[in-house]
Each structure stands twice: as structure tokens, then as C-alpha cells.
Design brief:
Blueprint (H helix, E strand, L loop, with lengths): L2 E5 L2 E7 L11 H9 L8 E4 L5 E3 L2 E5 L15
């Protein structure tokens, strides 16, 4: 996990990967964090070097191109 930001009193865990593809290892840190901070955290987000935006196993996968909208609430939900 690279960043833990706050939004509306909730924690937003962010992981940043430079690669253009996502592997199962890419989300390990976020999954571990969520297992420890379930009640205090908003859905975790992984920012990566690719161009697609999607959800995978309750984690937002977001292109670096859209990373500026993450804390504006465009896709951070409970």
C-alpha cells in the first residue's frame, strides 16, 4: 500500500503500480489492509499504467489517466 488518504471521515487505501497489466500479486497489499480496517475504509483503489478502469474482487482498478478523480468521489464508494 502506498497511500492512505481520508475522504469524508473514511480511509481510502491506494496502491500505485507502474505496469500496464495487473497480476494477482498487485492487489495483495490492498486485500491485507482491507482485512484489518474493514469498518474504517472505503473501497480500495489500485492505480496502474494501463488505460482501462474496472472493478476486480472488490477493488477499483484505475488508469493513471483518471487518477486525479479518485478523491473527488467519482468512483470511491463504500
Amino acid at each position: 500500500m502506498d497511500i492512505i488518504a481520508e475522504q469524508s471521515g473514511r480511509l481510502v487505501p491506494l496502491e500505485i503500480k507502474s505496469g500496464k497489466t495487473i497480476s494477482s500479486d498487485s492487489t495483495k497489499g490492498l486485500k491485507k489492509y482491507m482485512s484489518l480496517a474493514v469498518r474504517d475504509a472505503i473501497t480500495p483503489t489500485l492505480i496502474y499504467g494501463g488505460s482501462d478502469n474496472y472493478n476486480k474482487q472488490d477493488i477499483h482498478i484505475t488508469s493513471w489517466k483518471k487518477s486525479g478523480t479518485i478523491l473527488k468521489g467519482d468512483h470511491c464508494e463504500e
